[in-house]
Specification:
Number of helices: 12
Distance between the termini: 36 Å
CATH architecture: Alpha-Beta Barrel
Number of domains: 1
CATH class: Alpha Beta
Helix content: 25-40%
CATH topology: TIM Barrel
Number of strands: 10
Order of helices and strands: EEEHEHEHHEHEHEHEHHHEHH
Oligomer: single chain
Amino acid sequence: MNYRTLGKTGLNISEIGYGAWGIGNTGWRGADDAESLRALNRAVDLGLNFIDTALGYGDGHSEKLVGQVVRERSETVYVASKIPPKNGQWPARAGVPSSEAFTAEHVISSTETSLRNLGLDTIDVQQFHVWSDEWVGQGDWLEGVRKLKEQGKIRHFGVSINDNQPANAIKLIESGVVDSVQVIYNIFEQAPEDELLPACEKHNVGVIVRVALDEGGLTGSIEPDTTFDEDDFRSHYFRGERKQQVYDRVQKIVSDLGIGEDRIAETALRYVLSHPAVSTVIPGMRSVRNVERNMKIGDGRGLPKEQIELLKKHRWERNFYA
């Protein structure tokens, strides 16, 4: 496993991290706790030392599973979690004051709940689960963050940037108060390369990449007739003609690169890891099989320059979350 520094935090983290949304068994359906625990442990066996969870993943269920594994392991495993917005608005909306989403009191109480779920004394990276750059210099949320740092309850502060709004954190990055950002970045969603990633490099802010596999779209497993459980969020994400659109675009990638469909997931992860600003990528891994497949990719090699250039034309600006 290759390791990278998470910006100014100085944490040396595995370039393949663990995205723990799916094991919370909400949004994504089908997780089995016993298999989730096996998968988490297998990931650590193979050198993974960074897990990203959230209070909102299964109302703390994901945090409890993660904490169980971290407490039982002798290795150092860094844990990142997230504070849900007080007003329940996903994503953060323009014009809404910070006092409706993140007050100092909410930041502190949510973090203390997460610490109880995890069974840990400290969260290595605590993040806001949504963000609006209008909140820089507004409200008392930063006082809450600073108090938690002073008390040793969190080590570093980050934000998870709104879906498909990568520039909506530039002001925060330039303010110097944030240590890391989490962003959607993949072969289709290349917009972070425009402003966000250069800003993170300039200000030494760590970058945690989520949705590198486009919620499964960049795995080769989505076909025109693929179906999902009705309460699985992917039934909405891939609704209507979207499965056909994704399938057609994946076929073009496979054709352009001259690779088999079984290589698309590896290519997607390596594309993200080829950017020097990226600290880690956190694919969701609900099974040992997925862990073993993805961990092999964390070897520091990325993609050849020729393939990266070929993939630039596959940029696709859309928002399937809407």
